[in-house]
Each structure stands twice: as structure tokens, then as C-alpha cells.
Amino acid sequence: MRLSKLILNGFKSFADRTELVFDDDITGVVGPNGCGKSNVVDSIKWVLGERSSKSLRGKEMIDVIFAGSASRPPSGMASVSLVFENPIIDADAELVELDLADPIDEVDEESEADSEARRERRRSGRRRRSLPIEADDVAVERRLYRDGTSQYRINDRRVRLRDIRELFMDTGIGADAYSIIEQGKVDAMLLASPQDRRTIFEEAAGIARYKQRRIESTRKLDRTEVNLTRAREQLESTERRLRIVKGQATRARRFKELDSQLSAIRTAVAFDQYHDLRQRLDGLTSELTALESVRAEAHEQLAEMESQKQQAEIDRHELAEAVRRIETDRQSAIHDAEQAEQRVRMTESAIAEAQARLETDAAQI
């Protein structure tokens, strides 16, 4: 297995797509200060899963995207691809194949069941290549967009960072592996503690994978113990609830029995009340029939009296009209009598005056 190609696009100072081909006779990249040599190393560390922006000489991870210049706008994405040759080296050793049948959309921790199933599939074959992928070339790519979205890809299929780390485990390749030695890292390795040196030696010896598996198994055991404790607590709680539920079930059965008895008693009482009310209704119906006949007779009498009343009203009206006419005639007679009396008085007065004149005339004669 060897690195054959490095492809950069929009990463730091590499605004355009840049492809570095590492032939057999290339042993290093040289150039003047500021030409981007450190950016090449940073790109390799970044595509292998480096998450510290300080290790990439930036304040935040988005600083790895080309920021633009006076004549060029900034890039919207940074992409780095590492292409490794993956020839067949042994057909008898154990094969640990990475399953890339389906693209992975998440970059978080996978479920334990999926991880264990994937490991079982890996143990089922025979190792034939340096990297556990059935392909002559393995391209590992990382993309970062300005909105913060990050993607990892292996041969144009989306994977997780964990898959990339497991792919290069025990190969000496990684963001913190001994295959990448930066400025100052030699002194750091010389001055490192025995524990740090042990990590480097374990990586070189090829036991880091098994150590990582042991750590994961220990974590699984711890989680299993916690889950077992929770299951015991839930079992105790369930037993308590079961006792409560049994009591509730007994009370519920007793309630159903009493409720059925109450329903039967209510039904019997309802039938008794129905029969009583039916008898009373029959009696009231007969009484209602008799009262209806009485009411009809009273209605007929009332109609007859109403007709008599109307006739009496007519007679009263005629009598009142006759009285009014008689009263008018009486008033007219009274008026005529008064006028006659007045004429009599006037005549008597005229007669008296005439007699007086006659006497006067007689005396004069």
C-alpha cells in the first residue's frame, strides 16, 4: 500500500483543483517559504480526520476553505482526496473488509448492534489486500462547506469518520499517527513520556486495532452492567406494579360482579316501575276518555250559550235602539210642550194688553 495521489480543491491556498501525483521516485515536497508545503501536510491530516483547527494553523475549521483574494472570490467548499494503491498481497491471511454497500448519511456513533454485525462480516473472509476494500485504488475524501456541513467519502460513498479511522488502523496512517511527522514533532517524540511512546510503538506493531477493540468491549461491558442494573431496577419496579395491578384486578373483578348485580337490580326495578306506570297510564287513559266526553258536552253547551248570548246581545241592541228613539221622541215632545207653553204665555200677555187697550179705548170713547 502506498500513497499515489493527493487532490486538493479549495483547500487553503489551493483555490484551483490541484493534483499531486507521488511516483516511485518522489521522496518529498520542497519549495520556498510560503509556497504551501505545510498546507499539503495539513490537507493530509485534515482528510484523515483531524478535528483541531489549531493543529491546522487556524482559528476555526472553516478557515481551511479558500478565503479569496483581490482578484478571486472565496470558495464555497474545501475538498481533499487521498488515493492509495491497494494491490492484492495475500490470499491466505484474514480478511477484514469494510462494508460500503450502502451510503452513510450520519457521522455520529453507530448503534452497537450494527457495529457488531459489521465486525462479524469482517471476520468472515480471507485478507487479500492492504486495505480492507475490494478495489485496486482507495480514494479517501473529506469535504467541508461554508455552512459547516462536513462529509467523509471512501470511493465516492459517504461514510463516517469512524470508518476512516478503522480503515487505517494499524497501518501507521492517521491524523496523529507516526507516518506524519511535522515540524517540532521529532523533538516531541524524543521528549515524550513512556506512555506516549508506547502508543506509537503499539501503532507500529499493529496492535492498536485490538487495543481499541478491547476498549470498546470494556465500554460495552460497562454499558451492559449499567443496563443490567437498570433492568433489575425496572424488574423490581415491575414486580411492585404487578402486585398493585393484581390488587387492582381483584377489585376490578369484584366491581364487575357488583356492577352486573346492580345492573340486574336496576333492570328489575325498571320493569316494576314500567308495569306500575303502565297500569297507571291505562287508568289515566280511561279517565282521560271520560273527561274528553265531558269536555265535548261542555263545549257543546258553551257553543249553545254563546249563540244565546249573541242573540241576547242582538235583542239588547234592538231594545237600546228603541229606547234611544223613545228618548228622542220624549225630548222632542218636551221641547214642543215648552214651546206651546211659551206661546200660551205670550198669547195671554197679548190678550191682557189688548183688553187693557180696549178698556183704555172704551174710556176714551
Q: Can you give a write-up of this model?
A:
The chain contains six helices and eight strands; from the N terminus they run E-E-H-E-E-H-E-E-E-E-H-H-H-H. The strands form two sheets. It has a six-stranded antiparallel β-sheet. Strands 4-5 form a two-stranded antiparallel ribbon. It has helices at residues 37-47, 112-122, 161-167, 185-190, 194-205, 208-364; strands at 2-9, 18-21, 77-85, 88-95, 125-129, 137-145, 150-154, 157-159. Strand 1 (2-9) and strand 2 (18-21) form a beta hairpin. The protein is of the alpha+beta class. Among the domains are: 2-175, P-loop containing nucleotide triphosphate hydrolases (Rossmann fold, 3-Layer(aba) Sandwich), CATH 3.40.50; 176-206, no CATH class.
The chain-level mean pLDDT equals 81
Based on the structure, what is the oligomeric state of the protein chains?
single chain
Q: CATH H level of the domain at 2-175: which superfamily?
A: P-loop containing nucleotide triphosphate hydrolases
Number of helices: 6
Largest sheet composition: 6 strands, antiparallel
Label this structure with key terms.
alpha+beta, six-stranded antiparallel beta sheet, two-stranded antiparallel ribbon, 365 residues
In short:
It is built from 6 helices and 8 strands; from the N terminus they run ββαββαββββαααα. The chain has 365 residues and is an alpha+beta fold. The strands form 2 sheets. A 6-stranded antiparallel β-sheet has the order 2-1-3-6-7-8. A two-stranded antiparallel ribbon has the order 4-5.
